[in-house]
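Case study B.
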Amino acid sequence: MQGRPLRTTVIGSYPFPGWLEFACAHLDQFGEDDVREMQEDAVIAAVHDQAAAGLDVITDGEQTRLDFNLSFYGYLEGIRMEPAPGRRFGPPAHDQRGKHAVTGELAAPRGLGVVAEFERLRRVAPAGPALKASVPGPYTLSGRLAPNRQYPDRWAIAEALAPIVRGELEALVAAGCREITVDEPSMSCYAYREDPRRFVDLFNRTVEPAAGRCRLSTHLCFGNYKGRAVGPRRYAPMFPAFLEMRVEEIHLEMASREFAELEIIGDIARKMDVAAGIIDVKSYYLETVEDVAARVRRCLEYAPPERLSFAPDCGLSQTARWAARAKLRSLVEGVGRVRRELGIG
Ligand SMILES: [Zn+2]
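Model:
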């Protein structure tokens, strides 16, 4: 069970500072040491904002996953970066990210880089908040790789990636990481057309080395690239199958869906902790402290405080930093208000 009733937490990503985006576009002008320093400075900024908001759990904001070479795909052998997506103009959407070609055996001999991210976070984080690492699950990670003759469909690619993710989870636990989210938003996006039990089987085999050795959670949203969803925003197709996931906590997106299917958090809470997304990362309406408190009280109609945590709907990477800061402050203050009402310290 979680450390504190009504815990405040986040999904991994946080907006990049403007200078980081600018630097990203000119990385060829930076030396290796410059890049290392820049990555650490960016993490310091993300950690600062989260700690200043007063969150119980913080992440590194995924500030170092800033271009192809520094993201997971840069760690993978057997792929070739797609030069450009098919559609480069027009309204922003996930098809503008394109897919990388698989050219050989998929492998990651250096791991996926998350251990280094966690160690950097531990180095710069203040004492107090719990530290969480985020790793994409194999199904989500497979989404940007194009099937070929060796790996004929997305499932085959995901199965090939599962041991790589498994190795990363094992290494994270060995490095002392106590809390890991395995992000699988692609599972929630496509549960309507796949067998949800097959998702759970893949997920559970993937997390096996970390299960019982750290606090494991998963994040199930409906997509947020450029602030756009890609799946039909219903949790019903996933349940009850997803209750068999080997995790301590399931995170669901509720705010942007106007709390539809909120009763699901009650079903989850009978088995494990549930993190409710109560901050809409896609809207520039800034939730007030009272909005948050009202949403927390609403969740308490379905699940007990010791089972509940609260977070934004998704990572904040697609939300402007000024808004992200304001939203996190309201999240923490609103949850704090309900804690006081309930006499929880
Ligand atoms: Zn998400």
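The first strand starts at residue 7 and ends at 8. The remaining cases will be described in the next quarterly update.
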